[in-house]
Design a protein that fits this description.
The longest helix is centred in the C-terminal third of the chain and has 15 residues. Helix 1 packs across helix 9. The chain has 2 domains: 173 residues, FAD/NAD(P)-binding domain; 187 residues, D-Amino Acid Oxidase, Chain A, domain 2. It is built from 10 helices and 19 strands. Strands 1, 2, 9, 10, 11, 12, 18 and 19 form an 8-stranded mixed β-sheet that branches. An 8-stranded mixed β-sheet has the order 6-7-5-14-15-16-13-17. It starts with a strand and ends with a helix. The chain has 391 residues and is of the alpha+beta class. A hairpin with an 8-residue loop joins strand 14 and strand 15. The chain binds flavin-adenine dinucleotide. The site of flavin-adenine dinucleotide has 41 residues, from helix 1, strand 2, strand 13 and strand 17. The site of flavin-adenine dinucleotide (FAD) has 41 residues, from helix 1, strand 2, strand 13 and strand 17.
Length: 391
């Protein structure tokens, strides 16, 4: 490309945040171009567990935090999209589970007292027994308590695929896109494939990549933090579907299990929670041994003998907080003619889009550009961890 493309909004980074925003802006009449330097969602999004949180996990402390309030409307918003009645049409995306569950394996009821005292959660958490229990608990030896949450679990690659289709024509693959700084310190253009993109506003939704983009642009704020995880993957021919937070002795889940379909017909349990937080820095072998022991203790009737095991190291990238704590909601900051954002949760991608759209309205940015025709190569959707880790 040797020409300059003019557009209203240029988005850098095509994970859940950039793709959702791109689709929303186009729906509102903006011309957009989104530049992705690898595969769509290849940072965190395809490595996420796909849980559309409604805040219940955060209410385990007994009081609803700002995070729980910001996130509480998300399940309904995503459900509407999946049914074709929401802000974006995601009818082609795959729902893995209508519900995520909370599971207390033994006598940890005290942990739950404060949780159920939270008024905002009443009506959104329901105890389940007998035939209503998820298949993985269908065994006479099972003694725990299980609660159904008003939260869903999605197959993230299919969500990304749908969003990519909604953004068809606006997505550009470029591994060397570069921000050009103008004399006034603002972004003057983005260099791609030998040409330039100029926009009214630039939005940085590159996840962990925002840090390098900001540094290339010569801007030091906002600062970013990484919170690392080492996830464990267990793949087998007969693993029962399970989507649940297993409670331990702290307000954080001891284990969060989601179940994902693999292209070879097997299923993969993807294990997060404290196991993955405490697994950072451990050898993969040690962590796998710990995970195997946990599962054997919690679900001794599940046959793991034919399973394959793997781990995955991945960082959560977020705006810096004091003490590496989790930020409360989606985050967007305006710097010159750019907006820098991190959703902080996959579930909060709609919230991030709201914040960007509010900022554009506040800055009186309206659709101006005509359609930019180009023949630049579009990016593909990244392969999920359960396809790439067992090699
Ligand atoms: P990303 O998905 O990382 O996307 C950023 C994109 O920008 C990438 O595609 C990358 O290739 C691209 N990029 C990077 N640099 C550049 C550049 N210079 N130019 C152009 N493009 C660039 N949240 C939930 O709500 N529910 C969950 O169950 C959940 N589970 C999680 C499990 C794990 C193991 C992890 C790590 C996170 C989880 N999260 C979950 C959090 C969630 O995944 C993230 O908050 C969310 O995916 C971040 O989306 P993003 O679009 O900001 O970033």
């Amino acid at each position: 490309m040797s020409t300059t493309l003019e557009t209203d909004i240029c988005i850098l980074g095509g994970g859940i945040a950039g793709l959702w925003l791109n689709a929303r802006l186009r729906q509102q009449g903006f011309q957009t171009l989104l530049i992705e330097h690898g595969a769509l969602g290849g940072g965190q999004s395809v490595k996420s567990q796909g849980i559309i949180h409604g805040g219940t996990k955060y209410a385990l402390h007994g009081s609803l935090t700002t995070a729980a309030e910001a996130i509480s409307g998300m399940p309904a918003r995503w459900r509407a999209c999946l049914q074709g009645q929401g802000e974006l049409d995601l009818r082609g995306a795959r729902l893995l589970s209508q519900h995520h569950y909370l599971w207390s394996p033994g006598s940890l009821i005290s942990n739950l007292a404060g949780f159920f005292a939270s008024k905002a959660l009443r009506g959104r958490v329901e105890a389940v027994k007998g035939e209503q229990l998820p298949a993985a608990f269908a065994n006479r030896a099972f003694k725990g308590k299980v609660y159904r949450l008003d939260e869903l679990v999605l197959d993230v690659p299919s969500v990304l695929q749908q969003l990519a289709e909604l953004g068809a024509g606006s997505l550009i693959a470029d591994s060397h896109a570069q921000i050009e700084r103008g004399a006034n310190g603002e972004i003057s253009s983005v260099q791609v494939q030998g040409g330039k993109i100029r926009a009214q506003r630039y939005v940085l939704t590159a996840g962990e990549g925002n840090e390098a983009l900001l540094s290339d642009w010569g801007v030091s704020e906002p600062r970013m933090q990484r919170r690392p995880l080492q996830m464990v993957l267990v793949k087998g021919p007969a693993l029962p579907a399970l989507y649940a937070h297993c409670l331990g002795n702290s307000p954080k889940p001891r284990l969060t299990i989601t179940t994902h379909p693999c292209s070879d017909g097997q299923w993969c349990w993807y294990l997060g929670g404290e196991l993955a937080e405490q697994g950072v820095g451990q050898s993969a072998d040690n962590l796998i041994t710990k995970a195997r022991n946990e599962l054997t203790e919690l679900l001794p009737w599940v046959d793991l003998s034919a399973c394959q095991w793997a781990t995955l190291e991945v960082n959560r990238a977020e705006p810096a907080q004091s003490g590496l704590v989790r930020p409360d909601s989606a985050y967007v900051q305006a710097i010159g003619n750019a907006l820098i954002g991190w959703p902080t949760k996959l579930a909060l991608a709609p919230n991030l889009s709201d914040l960007v759209i509010e900022q554009l309205a506040r800055q009186a940015i309206t659709p101006q550009a005509s359609v930019s025709q180009h023949e630049l190569t579009p990016p593909s959707v990244a392969a999920p961890a359960w396809e790439s880790c067992f090699r």
